[in-house]
Amino acid sequence: MIPYSRQHLFSEDIKKVIKVLKSNFLTQGPQVEKFEKKIAKSCNSKYVVALNSATSGLHLTCLALGLKKNDYLWTVPITFIASANCGLYCGSKIDLVDIDNKTFNIDVYKLEKKLIHAKKYNKLPKILVPVHFGGNPCDLEKISYLSKKYKFKIVEDASHAFGSKYKNSLIGDCKYSDATVFSFHPVKPITSGEGGAVTCKDPELYKKIKILREHGIVKNKRQFKKKKNVQPWYYEQQQLGFNYRISDINAALGASQIDHINNFLKKRDQISKVYKKKIFNNYVEFQKYEKNSYSTNHLFIIKVNKNIHKALFNNLRKKKIYVQLHYIPIYRQPYYKKIFNFKLKNFKNSEDYYSRAISIPIYFSLTHKKQLKIIELINSFLEKKK
Ligand SMILES: *Cc1c(COP(=O)(O)O)cnc(C)c1O
Q1: Measured distance CA(82)–CA(177) in Å, rounded
Q2: Ligand 1 pocket: which of 183, 244, 246 to mutate (most atoms <8 Å of CB)?
Q3: 263 pLDDT exceeds 80?
Q4: How far apart, in whole angstroms, are the C-alpha atoms of residue 257 and residue 121?
Q5: Could you give the CA distance from residue 11 to residue 242 in angstroms, rounded to a whole number?
Q6: Which phi and psi angles does 201 have, rounded to 5°?
Q7: Kind of pairing, strands 179-183 and 153-157?
């Protein structure tokens, strides 16, 4: 079976994990800070909090930015549900902005139109979560301009985009946003087993997220509310936090994987180029990169004619190519349908995407031979359906 994506671990990665397993600390040791420093260095970010998942990172960032009941969080429908669930965790309302037909990222023109409308009805979002889809960076310059005009915060969902670049900035440096969230789940550009990270440039936001990660407990004497008779065993819970820590085992794996990032990116880039060259592209549309940007190529998506979508998907699965569909639009999920009254007519591009997209395999250890086999299967199917 060929999956759509999978991790690749080098023997150094495994050695470093074993070293932690033999050390004194499996969690709350020195590896987490090491991992955070390495993330900061590789994406030029000021502050980094590593956590047990991107979902946790999105949740805490929304909380720390003050998202509350009756606020709005906006994101796109074509994303993993965690991009929206973080808003629900904070009790806020969710609204969705359609994607662009070519880049599969948020449609910034529709975003602007929706903001103008929302302003009239006093329903502007507090937070926007743009998703760098498949690692393709969104039009951050335009989004940042709109955020200043309409006063909302930007939390980049960069779960696919560790290693992506936008203009003269690295995704994670938060040049155009308030915070960036990465995922290190095994299918993502690098992995820590399970894991995620938030990067930001505001020290106050950083502190808030870090305290929320660990039960809301403060251990630094200078931050205590209690000033007198502070005993050596003393610690203080100042708010309701969570246990969203990443273990030292996971952090060591993640840190080690960062050493291979250029290797990973180069290989994905090659695979993507071969697909684009060899798939009969008269019948297929590929994701268009945003201007002046570099994508991790986390996903490779083909958009085919509606009439053959299901048959091609099933045909590839039957041939043991485990293709996927990223993703079912959020407004189609029963849970969201129950709460919100989304109108399909507002999501023409997302609907078009959903009826035509297939994610085909792309990952570091995919051999050229296997890739050619996948291409041949797709092309012969397309040829027959002509
Ligand atoms: C994977 C993913 C997440 C969640 O990441 P976890 O680390 O598994 O919590 C969130 N958003 C997007 C777009 C993702 O692909």
Answers
A1: 19
A2: 183
A3: yes
A4: 47
A5: 34
A6: -115, -5
A7: parallel
